[in-house]
Amino acid sequence: MFFSVKPFEGQQFAALIKQCQHNKTLFEDPLFPAEDRSLFYQGNRIGKITWKRPKEICDDPHLFVNGISAHDLQQGQLGNCWFVAACSSLASREALWQKVIPDWKDQEWEKDKPEAYAGIFHFRFWRFGEWLDVVIDDRLPTTNGHLVYCHSNDSNEFWSALVEKAYAKLNGCYEALDGGNTADALVDFTGGVSEPIDLLEGRFKEDEEERNKLFDRVLKVHNRGGLISCSIRATSQSDMEARLDCGLVKGHAYAVTDVHKVRLGHGLLAFFKSEKLTMIRMRNPWGEKEWNGAWSDSSEEWQRVSKSEREKLGVTVQDDGEFWMNFEDFTKHFTDLILCRLINTSYLSIHKTWEEDVKFGSWSRHEDPLKNRSGGCINNKATYPQNPQYVFEVKKPEDEVLICVQQKDKRSLKDGKGENLAIGFDLQRVELNRIYRMHRPQQKICSSAYINSRSVFLRKELKEGRYVIIPTTFDPGLQGDFLLRVFTDVPSECKELTLDEPPQTCWTGLCGYPQLVTQVHVLKAAGLEAQDTGGSSDPYVIISCGGKKVRSPVHKDTLNPEFDVKGLFYRKNPKEKILIQIYNRNVLSDSFLGQVAVNTDASDMQKDHVLHLQGKGSRQNSNVPGVISVSIITSNVLTNI
């Protein structure tokens, strides 16, 4: 699949390697030199470092030895288990690592072509909406002849050390990788979206039904090529890397390398028994044996699984840091899970295809409240509506929507002291015809977490309607750039709301300009006339004013519909009434159920009304069965709603 790639810092790999081969020199990267400033923010914290090329470390260096696998990686003298765990996950996905390690066959050492070796490599990472091609030389930091940081089990395999160096360059220096977020690395490796799941908050340990639903989600992400990581939360600094009695380590990122439903039993009996275990396999970046509970490497539970099933799972008893657990034990011991979904936008796929909308935006300060775009979270009531706003449609009766807001990473700035902003977003349901910016909060559906991580994510089932996403910083007045990604089942037509009110044009003097703005919220109706043969109706409501209309979805088989639909009208003629009509959906021709006509202006104090439905035509002033509940707000300031 084609995707565009931008050279990081303008360094073109093809031109640089050609130049080195022509000059018969080995590449020395001027942007990431073999000096302490490429290792540390402020000064050496390890001791004497010698930079060596792989050929100076061993006789027969290779990018890969016997292919690539999760077992290749060993964490070095850097607190980057989060990065190593992400690499372990990456290694199990050929389609993904070949994006990160492009042209890997051409980058491999060739004994029969020594003149092709130029000491230069390149790797690719996804950052802020684009793939970046990062060039490095192959000089690696060593002490006493051994690699300081990430390395492979095979002393002549270097892919992990070189990928780590490229990632360190992207982030500013090696020390920038000391303490990080696995979710960020997974996104950088895939261009996907990471969903963090709090296993404690979700109470998956206690709730079997919810636990089974979660396992199905995890299995689906795994089977569709996504990457998964997990950890046990440390509550204090002294708790970090504390080993539990069960062998697991707190504050330590584990890569999930397999997810399976395992059939218990042997022979034909296994196929007739319905008992299956939900199983998950993990790897410790230290490559050491850890988990000592049920289904650990040499536990007796494996005797309950047939030889063929074990071979299918690739179960081996080795001290390789990889181990199985059943999912129930997993939710008992682990506290955090990260699902990095690969968002499939190809119409040729057999799997679910998502529609993606990508928007770049900024939080920026301005003295004019209508131009300010840094209003802070909803706690700041006066300034909150001043944030950027993005409207989108849900066009199905119900749709699963994924929303991700990502900020530019600031950790590599200011000598490693740069802090990411605490960011989040709210989702609000708005009028079906809203095309101008909101000026007061509406129906808040949900919020993401507010956190100073690079990205925040939300997955939500939404009913048909129009919604506004409001990305914000937690505190007002802060500035920064962000990337908004919205994924829906059908095109959502996501766009930024930029105008505050209807614009004045050259025709305004002739055609007039709105004097009032009115929001009509039809809440529900009750006691409607039954018009279907089954003694019910399929009602919908139409709100009309000034030649504009808003129509609700149809509500099936009910005489008491909960419409919950809004319309917004900019009114040139304040005396014109707002017409609210209810119809019954029929196959050939829809039938009329009743209507109300409402006149409202800015002086009206009462906004909530319960009104008897009336007929039309000759019955216009006669009541018909049913009442309707509406809430109406009118203002003569067009930027009040």
UniProtKB/TrEMBL annotation:
<feature type="active site">
    <location>
        <position position="81"/>
    </location>
</feature>
<dbReference type="InterPro" id="IPR000169">
    <property type="entry name" value="Pept_cys_AS"/>
</dbReference>
<dbReference type="GO" id="GO:0004198">
    <property type="term" value="F:calcium-dependent cysteine-type endopeptidase activity"/>
</dbReference>
<feature type="active site">
    <location>
        <position position="252"/>
    </location>
</feature>
<dbReference type="InterPro" id="IPR035892">
    <property type="entry name" value="C2_domain_sf"/>
</dbReference>
<dbReference type="InterPro" id="IPR033884">
    <property type="entry name" value="C2_Calpain"/>
</dbReference>
<dbReference type="InterPro" id="IPR022682">
    <property type="entry name" value="Calpain_domain_III"/>
</dbReference>
<keyword id="KW-0378">Hydrolase</keyword>
<comment type="similarity">
    <text>Belongs to the peptidase C2 family.</text>
</comment>
<dbReference type="InterPro" id="IPR036213">
    <property type="entry name" value="Calpain_III_sf"/>
</dbReference>
<keyword id="KW-0645">Protease</keyword>
<feature type="active site">
    <location>
        <position position="284"/>
    </location>
</feature>
<keyword id="KW-0788">Thiol protease</keyword>
<dbReference type="Pfam" id="PF00168">
    <property type="entry name" value="C2"/>
</dbReference>
<feature type="domain" description="Calpain catalytic">
    <location>
        <begin position="26"/>
        <end position="343"/>
    </location>
</feature>
<dbReference type="Pfam" id="PF01067">
    <property type="entry name" value="Calpain_III"/>
</dbReference>
<dbReference type="Pfam" id="PF00648">
    <property type="entry name" value="Peptidase_C2"/>
</dbReference>
<dbReference type="InterPro" id="IPR038765">
    <property type="entry name" value="Papain-like_cys_pep_sf"/>
</dbReference>
<dbReference type="GO" id="GO:0006508">
    <property type="term" value="P:proteolysis"/>
</dbReference>
<dbReference type="InterPro" id="IPR033883">
    <property type="entry name" value="C2_III"/>
</dbReference>
<protein>
    <recommendedName>
        <fullName>Calpain 5</fullName>
    </recommendedName>
</protein>
<dbReference type="InterPro" id="IPR000008">
    <property type="entry name" value="C2_dom"/>
</dbReference>
<dbReference type="InterPro" id="IPR022683">
    <property type="entry name" value="Calpain_III"/>
</dbReference>
<dbReference type="InterPro" id="IPR022684">
    <property type="entry name" value="Calpain_cysteine_protease"/>
</dbReference>
<feature type="domain" description="C2">
    <location>
        <begin position="491"/>
        <end position="615"/>
    </location>
</feature>
<dbReference type="GO" id="GO:0005737">
    <property type="term" value="C:cytoplasm"/>
</dbReference>
<dbReference type="InterPro" id="IPR001300">
    <property type="entry name" value="Peptidase_C2_calpain_cat"/>
</dbReference>
